[in-house]
Amino acid sequence: MLYKIKDAVDSEMQSIVEDARELIRIPSRNPPGEERRCAEYIHSRLKELGLNSILLHEPYADRPQVIAYARDSRFDELRIVLNGHIDTVPEGSMEGWNVDPFSGMIKDGKIYGRGAADMKSALAIMMHICKIVGRRDLLLCFAIGEERAEPGTSTILKHVRRLGIDRLRYGIVMEPTSLKIATCQMGALWLNVRVKGRSAHASIPTNGINAIVRACKAIGALEAYARDIAKRSISNSSSMISNGSRACIPRCSVTMIAGGVKENIVPDECSFTIDRRVAPYESANDVISEIKALLDAYAEEYEMSMIAERSPVCIDESSILVKGLSDALATIGITDHPVCWCFPGSTDNEHVVREGIESIVWGSGSIEQAHAADEHISIEELRLSTYALALLLSKLGYQE
């Protein structure tokens, strides 16, 4: 069986690489949410690859997502869901790029471009995996909106349940983990803070209250807070918390700032955005209270509002997914990757697990490449992840 799977993977690799490159060449930035062309390409290619049971599902106007499964599958057979998101972050300033971010260029055994690691190469694997393993119980979900915490995956799962697909048992969200098995992922709070002051002529600044200065004091306090929470740990005696969760480190960053209207006016308003990564052993309400206490002391007059919230996730480390994928990786010679790892980002796995599906985060590519200039992924790692996934899927479900 091993040789058969390896041969099937090897025969598809060139097509997987070419599909990954083509997906990179089709911008699907979010914002603004331009996934349509990419979704239509996936839809068209899946038809060519023999998956005729393909739906374009449109939760938002002009932003379709793709749902697919083998054409001869019955709804009651669909038990394994593979999930990936179509959207990418924008390419940002071109100053940091040495390649065209939408070229899909290959150099030194790596594919370059926005989405190469996060996560168009994974989408290409998903497009070909049914052909490689020949299983009829796979549901493929190509979702929109993940980069802005929009509920694309959630709407897919609710839609397929309405269709009668309600026996899904296992899931893999194929984010870039460098092949490490993430049984946990961080949650996130994105907060907007609007600091108030009082305007005045800049030649008489004491007549006003500088909102930027107030905001800077608050940001300085948040920087100290970020250093403090990064040192937090939980007791090893806590039987309720998994080893993977212990590896989840809280983080806090100020990621956007805006203030002032003219060079000679003391500003009466300054806004900034907080990205707070929430560990599975933390309470979102407690985190918000901590931040409010800092802002009360340093920002003085302010308004804080929630932009979006993502839940942390942990599944049981004894999951058959962990054992099966660990065995698959060992079979192909990868034995040094930790299991029960905590993925530092927030992913759509929160939606998958919330639907009662036993699901992990796992895939090729490095999280360090996600959202970075000159984003790239190793073609060899792409091959290894396809091989390991195929080995896992060839046995998953039959071991129960």
Automatic annotation (TrEMBL):
Q: Which CDD domains match?
A: M20_ArgE_DapE-like
Family annotation (Pfam families): M20_dimer (PF07687), Peptidase_M20 (PF01546)
PANTHER family, per database record: ACETYLORNITHINE DEACETYLASE
- Keyword Lyase on entry: no
Source organism (scientific name): Candidatus Nitrosocaldus cavascurensis
Q: Which cofactor does it need?
A: Zn(2+); Co(2+)
Q: Name one GO molecular function term.
A: metal ion binding
Tell me the keywords, alphabetical order. Cobalt, Hydrolase, Metal-binding, Zinc
- Name assigned to this protein: Peptidase M20 dimerisation domain-containing protein
> What's the superkingdom here?
Archaea
Q: Which residues form the Peptidase M20 dimerisation domain?
A: 186-303
Q: Which family does it belong to?
A: Belongs to the peptidase M20A family.
